[in-house]
Input
Amino acid sequence: MEIPYTVQPRPDTGIYNAKVGIWLFLASEVMLFGGLFSGYVLLRVGADQWPHGWLDVRFGTLNTIILALSAITTLLAWAACKVGHFGKFKFFHACTLLLALSFLSVKMYEYHDKWIHYEIKLADGTFADGHLVEKSADFDLAQKTGTVTLHGRIVKDETLLYDLRSQKNIELKEVTVNASDIVKMENYGPWHNTFLAIYFTLTGLHALHILGGSIVIGYLWGPGSKMWKKDPERFTNRIEVSGLFWHFVDLVWIFLFPVLYLT
Amino acid sequence: MSLKAFHLIFVTLLTTLSFGFSAWAFIAGQVIFGALGIVAAILVIIYGIYFLKKLKKISYL
Output
């Protein structure tokens, strides 16, 4: 049985079926991310304190440039198919894939940076904050044995850790803390506070979309490209549909970047 | 809406983001980032015009 309207537009909608399908899917995606963005706004306006300057703008900017370039290469790959240049399509789609992997690599680095960043509440009421250098071999928080070393600083007031924008030249040094002095030790994971919870949720879901899109693009670049020989028009439509999804994912990042990194 | 139309929306939002980023950077006292934001916005606008001319024959639907 032949699938109808894979190439020719359906008379009642005016477009081929896959395009209707992807737009319906993207409408549901708008609701998903829209709900999360609304959640972000409500959590933020209801919070007594909100962290500022916790994310490195340089990495966010780099990832914005990477995704912008990938949107261009996606469009160029589709345009190459439209004019019958399969070689160019292969090249531009490979570029998109590499850019997607670059985005994920930068994101993983950022996640790792948060993962090894600790805030330690000490018995004297001060706070040690910084990146983990090492834990002694006998370090055990429950047994209160050993030491932990951070590359960071000690502050008397926890609120100093919240707004980093005005603290331009923070002097960081190695700080070693005895386990017996630790009241609470927690890394900057999603459990640390509301900001990090929503940061990991939004960017994690977005990264999953990048990963999913990369798999589809990888398939169309590799084994899926066999369709070009027997049905080039249908293949071109597949590239357009994957490009629409990719543009949506890029568009989400255009909202995520200022909301999380700049405000 | 075709990929061409969606790309046009993307380019418009990217231009807005670039100008917004530039404004943020100047307010935060990061002049280099601010200048780069303006350069990026201009480049995106030039690209947008080029892309529109190049894909003139492709439908927005």
